[in-house]
Amino acid sequence: MKEKSCAVFYSGGKDGHLSLLKAVNSGYKISCIINIDGGKKHKSLFNDAKKILLLKQHAKAMGFPLFIYTASSSFNPKNIKENFTKIITSALKKHEFNSVFIGITEDEIGYRALSELSKEIKVKIMMPIAKKDIFKVIEECEKLKIKPRITGVGKNVNTSWIGKIFNVKVLKYIRKERKKGNFIDGNDFQTVVIASPLFFKIKFKSKI
Q: Buried (b) or exposed (e) across 98-137, using 16+ Cβ within 10 A?
């Protein structure tokens, strides 16, 4: 039987880390964790900060190889199937794997595109938290002892949450805001995981 091996798309936040831990707990060998470097256009392309130094620390703490895909100047986040095909193909040139884990949650368009792509390429695409909302994601993080720290928030979120751990207190805040008509979801928070069962006991540098 072929060994279960996978690559995991990983930005250091709650969704990617939860997917990574699920892959590990499901018996997969982690061939590499994948991140995208958007270069000078990174902020305009992605809803997350570029944090290569932090990702290198995460990779070292977990003992997994880190693969950085450098996006070209023509990179368009909306071309989901095309982008993931290029990234996965590039990663396969350096690492061997037969599955890819992606921490997509409530993005229905992305889910459909990646489901179609999974049928077109030889690598199986796994999306273990695709049908989970932010409440279920955080509940699982707490259950599995994953601690995500909030590093950035959307315009409709109180900035006082920056620097705090994303836990049930934040979920209570989200519920209250939704009742007021302010629909906040997981995409309104940028996070970095600072504690996990996958980490060795090393001290992370604060600079990102």
A: bbbbbbbbbeeebbebbeebbeeeebebbbbbbebebeeb
pTM of this structure: 0.90
pLDDT digits 0-9 by tens, 101-128: 999 988 888 999 999 999 999 899 999 9
Provide CATH code, domain 5-195. 3.40.50.620
The domain locations on the chain are: 5-195
